[in-house]
What does this fold into?
Amino acid sequence: MKKYFIISLFFISLFGASKAFSSALSKFQIQSTYLVSGKLNVPNSSVITTFKVDFDITRQYINVNNQNQPEKVDWTVTVMYSASSSPGASDNVAISDPFRVTESDFSTNNPLVYSKTGLEAKLPANKTSGLIFLKYSYYLWSQGVKSTNPVTSNSTTTYSISATATNPTNPTNPNPPTDITKMQNMGFSTIGMQTFSTYYVVEGDIRITKALLAVTNPYYGVNNTYDHNINIKVDASVWSSSNWYNGILEAARVWNTANTDIKINLIYDSFTYSIAPRVDVVVKGASLPVSPTKIPFEAEWVKGNGNPGGEIIVNTNPGYTLAPSGDDILHLFHAIAHTMALGHTSSTVPNHENSIMSRAFEVTSAWSYLVGNYGLPFANDVTYFNSRYPVNANSVINSYINGPATFSSSASVTFRSSYISAEAGITYAWKAVGINGTTYNYQESGSNPALYDFGLPAGNYRLECTISGGKYTTEVTATKNIVVN
It folds into this structure.
């Protein structure tokens, strides 16, 4: 049965200095959506049950050299399952990725409490009894020096399991949950849900396909098959809307600048590529309702097989207008996040109305921040995105060059890297080299991901764009052969 608790832990430093430590796990709870009568709801024990937990870590000010400073924190937290009646039994199994919390995760607004919302855990199939609990380990500090060995403990709050009874007429097939139950178990609100032939729309802007709900053991995230490179095709139906077209360019730039390993590459079916890029997500325009509620977009949730949601539908209804200026970028960033299995900011989070993932789109202060910083406007957004897809410096950008493969020597054209970013230290080195008998060599380098109004004399060329610096240590070069008539 669910309980709330506060643990106060006082220790004498391992280094001989007499000092009290009170870093504590002050809350652990499974989100109520996944509970029935205080127990973890397992609607179908023959498959994996995915659920989310919240926890809080607290610390206090301590006296160091006659100065009050927040106590240093270095914790690792893992959701665990035990088939026994005690969390300390030898059959404990980790059912979530380890989640690390350090002092840098505490905000300046609330330096003594760190709250984690929505740590995902997966209970294996065929678990109909036992306990869910939180295992945590942490290091003690003395005079700024961390101890060698961590202290490990388990939460005193535990949850038992409530599994659906097996259908007696078919013991191998437990009573299947309805689509509504499945979506609720995924953490979505189904209040105001809309039903269509192949999908549902929940929470106003998220499409949950019926194909996803039919997947056995779905994975609610994007896998690392392509080094987290996601190719988004800008459909021709968006080109005529300058707001949405420019918005997707800036949303991709902002996303790539932010602290996440997901790399957005924009591609266009009107251009010729030496190797045709795969398409992961399509941004297309359609006439969505404008009354009684203006709908800016709908975004498909992940497919359940490690791939992102396949579509973002932006509203090109002539009766729909974007206001204030810049909302197109915010909406598209928000939509991209949904295709990567990133949900709405909980209304219980302080200042949630300033989050780029707010359901209410109350982002009046977000736009001015975004323009000046090309970053995320809300500290919890940064933590949220990075916790799902933390940056791997050894990850590799798989980029392309967007632009025509053939044009006239009298024309001025624009070439653009598919990966556009304003991250600190990034450099785009452009080069045009004559090939097949053409003698020519042009180079320029800087932070600009595009060659604007670029022209060449008649001939054959290899265009190169080398990306270096920024978040990733591996230099990459995209090439494109072009013919100028």
